[in-house]
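S.,

As promised, the zinc ion run. Input:
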Amino acid sequence: MPMVTRDALSKVAKIIGGENAVKIIEVLSQNDEMTEEEIVAKTGIKINEARKILYKLYEHSIVGLRRTRDKDTGWFIFYWRVQMDQVEGFIISQKKRVLEKLENRLEYEKDHDFYYCHTPGCRRVTFEEATENLFRCPVCHKPLIHYDNSKIIAALSKKIERIKSELKNE
Ligand SMILES: [Zn+2]
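Predicted complex:
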């Protein structure tokens, strides 16, 4: 399995928790483990916000958690760390989701004949919708002309191939 790059790690953090998650992951990945107080001190993010983000990352297994009890106060201390191996898994499952969506879209494009009035702001309609509307645009009422979607099909196919080859290399 290839190493997760810093860039990929930041992207994953951003998807899950936004810019503050990127900051947290950045400081966490430079240390073995950190307490919430240390994270707050290094990032300047408020404790409640930091906690919220940490638990979001935790739900996706991007960070792990160890807790010990403070001998003096009896309170729990949480130590957080980045789980690099889980990051890789997250990236792969995201790619699979995107792939599935693209494949569904491609199938839809291949299975349908589209008609379009070529008015900006109007949308394409399927053959079924076009016949229902007597080949007039349901929005602007201009005549509907057959729409060649071969470019869309080619672009989708290209994207699908790229993701498939990336997944093969994971
Ligand atoms: Zn129209």
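Residues 117, 119, 122, 137, 139-140, 142 surround zinc ion (CB under 6 Å). Residues 56 and 158 are 34 Å apart (CA to CA).

- D.
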